[in-house]
Write the structure tokens for this entry.
Amino acid sequence: YWLGRASYQRALTATELGSSAMEGYLLTWADGKPLYVLWSNDDQVREVGLPAVQVQVMDMYGDTMGLISDGDDGQEDGRVRINVGPNPIYVRVLR
């Protein structure tokens, strides 16, 4: 659902993702806000920090996994922290 309403922008770098074992892409959703597609290439679950105040996460089957907000990790730093494993997830920035 989200990909059909998004425009590809670019691949994310290993520096942005925090590991060369991660893969990620930045798209722009229909409302102009970022949409990230993320997964790990090595079966490990890794934490990725993204610039956002609040995001909605959806799994590869289209099921909503919940909302994550800046500060959920104990720090308000303008970033959300998301655990990402080998199955792709979609992260839509809400604010």
